[in-house]
Structure formats: C-alpha cells, structure tokens
Amino acid sequence: MSNKKIYLFIDDSRVSRMKIRQVVQQNHPEWELHEAAGGKEAHALTLTIKPDLISIDINMPEMSGLEAIAGLRQNCPSAQIVLLSGNIQDDMRAQAAQLAVGFVEKPITAAAMAQVMAYME
Questions:
Q1: Sequence-distant (≥ 6) Cβ neighbours of residue 81 within 8 angstroms
Q2: Which CATH number is 1-6+49-121 given?
Q3: What is the pTM of this model?
Q4: Taking the CB of residue 106, how many other CB atoms lie within 10 A of it?
Q5: Hey, where are the domains in the chain?
Q6: Burial class, 71, CB count within 10 angstroms (exposed 0-12 / middle 13-18 / buried 19+)
Q7: How do residues 81-111 score in pLDDT, each as one tens digit?
C-alpha cells in the first residue's frame, strides 16, 4: 500500500486552510493536498479527484458541512470523512456519530491535526 494519500480539506476560513496545509505537509509531505472554501467547491473537486481523507468544517456559508457530506459520500464512497469544527455541542457530535464520520475539535493545532490524520494511518 502506498503512503501517498489524497486529502481534501474544506473550510471557509483561509487561515484555517493555511494551518491545515502547513501541519499536514510537515507530517506527510508525500500526501497530495487539495482544499476548498465550501461544500459546492468541494463537490466540484470530487468529480475529478478521489480523496482518501476529507475534513470539513460544519459552519460555512451556502452549505453546512453536514449538508455537504451526502454529496461527498456519493462522489467518494471510500473516503474517510472527519468533521473539523469549533462547533462542539453535544448535538453536533451526535450528528457526526449518526453520519458515521469522525469529529475533531478546533482550533487547528498539531494535536488536532494528528487526530484527523490518524483516520488514515
């Protein structure tokens, strides 16, 4: 099995995307990284790339992370999906569990990203 993975991270915050990219590149320089600022952009991307790992914020304009998951699953049925969010209410964790996706709490730190990347290790 190759160590090269394709990782798509979706967050409306440019700063968050920059932090994610930085941490992942430091830990897995062999991974192919793609980013999207929202669910619609992510859906379009997954028509041409098939990520192994997808992390997505919950609270975004146009389409929430929870709303985007169905389309992402349809386009990438084998991808591991992780909600990466500051919205840590119990009902959000319960929805993540119902959708059978991981949940990692923001802020984006090396420790939080280690939890996200562990879904692929």
A1: 53, 54, 55, 56, 69, 72, 73, 99, 101, 102
A2: 3.40.50.2300
A3: 0.95
A4: 18
A5: 1-6+49-121
A6: middle
A7: 999 998 888 888 899 999 999 999 999 999 9
